[in-house]
Structures are given as C-alpha cells and as structure tokens.
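Good morning,

Attaching, inline, the backbone tokens for the sequence recovery test we're adding to the shared suite. The designed sequence is right after.
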C-alpha cells in the first residue's frame, strides 16, 4: 500500500485529514523513540508543502544516519499549512505490534529552528 496522506497542523504537530489513505496512513506510522528525534522511524517524504526550516535535532539525526535530503521526520515537523506526504515506515510495514510510546503534544526536544540544507 502506498501510505500517502494529507496533513494539517494542530498545536504545531502533523496530523492526517483525508488523501489516498488519510488518517489510516498517519495512525499507522511508526515512532519508537517517543518523538525525540532518535530512531527515525517516523520517516516521511513531502510531496507538496514542505517547510524550508527544520529543527536542529532532526537535522543532526538525519545527517548522522546519512538520510539528509532523502526523508523528513514527521514528529519533528513544523506544520502550519496543508501538506501532502508519503509515510515511509509504518507499524504494519515494519512488523511491529504498536507504533511506539504515547506522544507529547509539543515537539520534543524543544525545537531550535534552522534552515533546511539545499
């Protein structure tokens, strides 16, 4: 299944609202570290509406794992407008039995915003 979804912002976090598989795709996404920018299982690909900034924690973990420019982390994303994204790692596709720990309503760690490298 192509887990593609529309996203919208609520309290600065990325959520689903419709699209090819809509809320299912975002509910099924994986997050093993509790949204602390450590595991990179909340990987997404923006198809429309990607922000030009990212938090420093996301930048650092993507650089360390040689993923910079290939993926973004949904739980580190600032979302203040509609976006279209593809969820790249889901609980279903990884064979895990749950998506991970309960998330906090704010981005963790507290974001330090930087420009996204080109």
């Amino acid at each position: 299944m192509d887990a593609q979804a529309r996203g919208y912002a609520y309290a600065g976090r990325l959520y689903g609202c419709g699209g090819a598989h809509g809320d299912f795709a975002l509910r099924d996404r994986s997050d093993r570290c509790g949204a602390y920018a450590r595991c990179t299982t909340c990987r997404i690909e923006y198809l429309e509406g990607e922000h030009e900034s990212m938090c420093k924690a996301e930048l650092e973990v993507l650089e360390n794992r040689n993923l910079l420019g290939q993926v973004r982390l949904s739980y580190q994303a600032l979302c203040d407008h509609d976006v279209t994204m593809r969820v790249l790692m889901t609980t279903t596709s990884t064979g895990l039995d749950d998506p991970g720990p309960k998330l906090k309503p704010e981005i963790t760690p507290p974001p330090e915003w930087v420009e996204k490298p080109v």
